[in-house]
Automatic annotation (TrEMBL):
NCBIfam families: cit_synth_I, PRK05614.1. Belongs to the citrate synthase family. Pfam families: Citrate_synt. PROSITE patterns: CITRATE_SYNTHASE. One of its GO terms (biological process) is tricarboxylic acid cycle. Keywords: Acyltransferase, Transferase, Tricarboxylic acid cycle. The active site is at residues 315, 373. It catalyses: oxaloacetate + acetyl-CoA + H2O = citrate + CoA + H(+). Pathway: Carbohydrate metabolism; tricarboxylic acid cycle; isocitrate from oxaloacetate: step 1/2. It comes from Roseicella aquatilis. This is Citrate synthase. GO terms for cellular component: cytoplasm.
Length: 439
């Protein structure tokens, strides 16, 4: 634990091992908010035992100053600022600065940052050809995972992770280029020409432009849609030590370059239990088909043998409500109203599903509530974004969280390679038998 974590009134936890005369005192540290943590680093040395926490439900894997979640109270703070305030008053570029540098920028810092990110939005021209190697029907997450990893092959000048300047340029490049790569993955899948980034547009506008514009037609920004897109980006920008961020940190702890680390994060995000859930929600709603089928679907979800989950519901940390889901639901209504969509069967179905689930003992007793992914897909669909791009959009937003967490880790003097241990339950040592003597 580095010096900024404070001893919690010099509290310790005494652990003694039954059946032996050995015990140890483990220090307890307090963060600025949130539960205290027990520093178990000398546990193995003193008692010869490991801790066992599959899924890391009770493990703080690192010290961080970036994002705080109180899952019981439904609180999400970026650098101390509530997500509700940032979603309403800030924008994605300002939030990106906040996540990366820890403070809201002055007007001048914001302008410099905005220009810095904008300056890096183009990708190396040769990278275009990389896309041609993919099948047209490849999932865009597969494409962006490959292309982001390949950035390391193009930007040799910022691969020295020990140089703060190079780390910063790599961070700018990742934040700036990910929308270009994401939009091109989509354009490639539908056989349309790639649109080059436009630096006169905001981050969200430019992303929508590269996704939707074609060279043959003038493109008109719809401020309502770009504002909604910006808000979606803000809501997804960081979420402390979730699976993909922990993946980025673990990959980064080996000294791997940031492009490789973010590619690893994209791979982890893809799973339906994580970022892939927004795509899975729409597929689920389509499969349910009509509201009359909801009770049968809920019965299936509650049947352990069916392995069916109510996608977009539940969260490892939020056990009351997901504050992002609340904002997302409001945004969903706003976007549909602005687009003049009075009747959206998917939204009606989602709301009915939510109503039924929230009054069902199964969900109540397990504290399962809608998460950020429950309503995001409906907004994105209304905005004309294809389902296969939903998780890609999550990756675009989360890139700033990943690079901020990666930077923080590299700059932490107590950082070492991440190397968990295990509870081994396999065969104990035995001798090799030649095949003729087996069985
Ligand atoms: N539908 C039905 N049952 C559920 C669900 C769900 N969506 N989520 C959890 N449960 C049940 C689970 O079966 C378990 O029941 P029991 O105690 O009887 O065995 C209980 O609730 C506790 O669940 P858990 O699996 O121990 O919870 P977890 O913290 O390991 O998993 C989760 C969290 C998000 C992976 C899980 O809730 C889930 O798979 N949800 C659906 C996928 C989803 O929406 N993911 C997006 C998460 S938010 C965005 C992000 O961070 O990427």
């Amino acid at each position: 634990m580095s010096s900024s974590a404070t001893p919690a009134g010099k509290k310790t936890v005494t652990v003694s091992l039954e059946g032996s005369n050995r015990s140890t005192n483990l220090p307890v540290f307090s963060g600025s908010i949130g539960p205290d943590v027990v520093d178990i680093r000398k546990l193995y040395g003193d008692l010869g035992v490991f801790t066992f926490d599959p899924g890391y439900g009770a493990t703080a894997s690192c010290e961080s100053k970036i994002t705080y979640i109180d899952g019981d109270a439904g609180v999400l703070l970026y650098r101390g600022y509530p997500i509700e305030q940032l979603a309403e008053k800030s924008d994605f570029i300002e939030v990106s600065y906040l996540l990366m540098y820890g403070e809201l920028p002055t007007a001048e810092q914001l302008e410099t940052f905005r220009k810095g990110v904008t300056y890096h939005t183009m990708v190396h021209e040769q990278l275009r050809r990389f896309f041609d190697g993919f099948r047209r029907d490849a999932h865009p997450m597969a494409v962006i995972c490959g292309v982001v990893g390949a950035l390391a092959a193009f930007y040799h000048d910022n691969l020295d992770i020990n140089d703060p300047k190079q780390r910063e340029i790599a961070a700018y490049r990742l934040i700036a280029k990910i929308p270009t790569i994401a939009a091109w993955a989509y354009k490639y899948s539908i056989g349309q020409p790639f649109m080059y980034p436009r630096n006169d547009l905001s981050y969200a506008e430019n992303f929508l432009y590269m996704l939707n514009a074609v060279p043959a037609e003038p493109w008109k920004n719809n401020p309502i849609l770009s504002r909604a897109m910006d808000r979606i980006l803000v809501l997804h920008a960081d979420h402390e030590q979730n699976a993909s961020t922990s993946t980025v940190r673990l990959a980064g702890s080996t000294g791997a370059n940031p492009f490789a680390c973010v590619a690893a994060g994209i791979a982890a995000l893809w799973g339906p239990a994580h970022g892939g859930a927004n795509e899975a929600v729409l597929k689920m709603l389509a499969e349910i088909g009509t509201p009359e089928n909801i009770p049968q679907f809920i019965r299936e979800v509650k049947d352990k043998n069916s392995h069916t989950k109510l996608m977009g519901f539940g969260h490892r940390v939020y056990k009351n409500f997901d504050p992002r889901a609340k904002i997302m639901k409001e945004t969903c209504h706003e976007v549909l109203a602005e687009l003049g969509i009075k009747d959206e069967p998917l939204l009606d179905m989602a709301m009915e599903l939510e109503r039924i689930a929230l009054s069902d003992e199964y969900f109540i007793s397990r504290k399962l509530y809608p998460n950020v992914d429950f309503y995001s897909g409906i907004i994105l669909k209304a905005m004309g974004i294809p389902t296969s791009m939903f998780t890609v959009l999550f990756a675009v937003a989360r890139t700033v969280g990943w690079v901020s967490q990666w930077k923080e880790m590299i700059e932490d003097p107590s950082q070492r390679i991440g190397r968990p241990r295990q509870l081994y339950t396999g065969a104990s040592q035995r001798d090799y038998l030649p095949v003729a003597r087996r069985g």
